[in-house]
Amino acid sequence: MNPRTGLVNVLCDLCNEDKYDVLFVKEGFRHVRCRSCGLVFVNPRLAGHLEIQTVSGTGEMGEKQLSRAQVRRIRKELASVEQYRQLNRVLEVGAGRGWFLAEAFAAGWESWAVEINASALQQLRNRGITRIVNESAETFEAPTAAFDVIRMWDVIEHLQSPTSAVANVLRCLRPGGLLRISTTNFASLSRWVNGPEWVYLNGADHIVLFDPPTITRLLTGHGFSNIRIRTRSFNMRRKLYHPEKDLPPAWPIPGLLRKLIDETIRLTKYGHQMIVEAVKPDTGAG
Asked: Domain for residue 162, yes or no?
């Protein structure tokens, strides 16, 4: 599909308003900010966005082989959520190549996946993941209150309605269970330095862009509590997508200075990646 055809106008997914300011246009895609809640999103966007995700998007992303350091990070993440393990079920929405779920399965978790990408579905089966729901994040059906942990890693920015997806996740998560989200940070120093050409701004794919205030509003609006946000990394990559073309860095920053910025930015809310944790309140109703 030509990314400049088949467009549809949308309301703000977070507050349902239709008043916004245009921030910039990249490769024909307008990136706008809602005047009411501050959410940044692509408008208009591709009418066939969901269908495109079945053959591209998150399912095609990620490494074809993990390094030892990446495996260690996944195992460290699993160790950090062990305290939530009661029902022994973990669900990943947008499981992609299945690296996280494969490690969870090896650690004894009953591992579930929600995925629509054809390539990812096959890779999940190849890794022994059999509990696969082939539906969108917004509409998938899975047991209610059945999961200790639900993970959405580099997925929410691809969704047509993050609000519907989070509502669905809340239903499936047990009281006291944990939601973990990773997404790019529109308020990051990286985005500010690189401008519209920043690598994570792809209007055909990344259609909803959060920052700490808007991701907090999304989660609190659905009743989540104990919301914790940390950010990491300073990413200088710039890219065009139609056709694909890597661009040189906007600013030439020496490697030592970049490393210093990268280490310092972890202490702030301006890293390029947001890692968000939120808990479904335990009302005592079981």
From this structure: yes
DSSP 230-243: EEE-----EEEETT
pLDDT in tens, 186-215: 999 999 999 999 999 999 999 999 999 999
Write the DSSP symbol of residue 157: G
| Kind and range of the H or E run holding 184 | strand 173-184
Domain carrying residue 141: 48-279
- Tell me the per-residue pLDDT of 114-157, one tens digit each, with 9 for 90 and over: 999 999 999 999 999 999 999 999 999 999 999 999 999 999 99
Looking at the chain, the number of H-run helices and the number of E-run strands are 8, 15
- What is the chain's Cα-based Rg? 19
Give the CATH number for residue 166: 3.40.50.150
Whether 10 maps to a domain, the answer reads no
Our measurement of the distance from residue 174's CA atom to the centroid of its chain's CA atoms, rounded to an integer in Å, reads 21
Residue 269 counted as domain residue: yes
Q: What's the structural domain count of the chain? A: 1
